[in-house]
Amino acid sequence: VSVIGPAAGSLTSDLSSVASLSLSVLTVSQQVSAVDVSEGEQFVLLPCHFNKSELINATVVWTRQDLSPSTVHQRQTGGDELKDQNQLYRDRTSMKADSLETGDVSLSLSDLQLSDSGTYTCTVRDPRGEPRATDVELSRIPCLPARPPAQVAGISNLVLSPQWIKKYKHANRKIQTCK
């Protein structure tokens, strides 16, 4: 850029100010996986894995953005930090004791409830680098009782036709027998 005249000095000064600015861009590495859970299951493991070198002095936070507070579980170098945990998850979440050393920061969720369905985000916050995240979609699979619903309700003479069961299975695609 060449400028002639009295503005030249001012522009040179402005350009050197602009040249000294730096641009920081935050990039989040994101992966998505899905976990299906049958009704009646006692617990589920939400998968999340990182290279163990990425977890040095890192904090792992599991969240659900549709909740307030959004924190489901938090693990730091010193152990679990659950003071900001959403009360819906109190005493129902855990991670392996050596999770930060192995890179397996999967979350175990017990005493499953219908309201547990949703998108969970596993985020690693490393003071040396950018945050990285993995989304896990947890959904419940409908199931058929081991006995026809009429028998469950106490009506033993009513039998569901195989055509109804086939139609129900086709409509829901994923179907299991309740335990």
UniProtKB/TrEMBL annotation:
GO terms for molecular function: signaling receptor binding. Its main location: membrane. GO terms for cellular component: external side of plasma membrane. Residues 6-139 form the Ig-like domain. The keyword Membrane applies. It is found in: Membrane. Keywords: Disulfide bond, Glycoprotein, Immunoglobulin domain, Membrane, Signal. One of its GO terms (biological process) is regulation of T cell activation. InterPro entries: Ig-like_dom, Ig-like_dom_sf, Ig-like_fold, Ig_sub, Ig_V-set, IgSF_BTN/MOG. This is Ig-like domain-containing protein. It comes from Kryptolebias marmoratus (Mangrove killifish). The lineage of its organism: Eukaryota, Metazoa, Chordata, Craniata, Vertebrata.
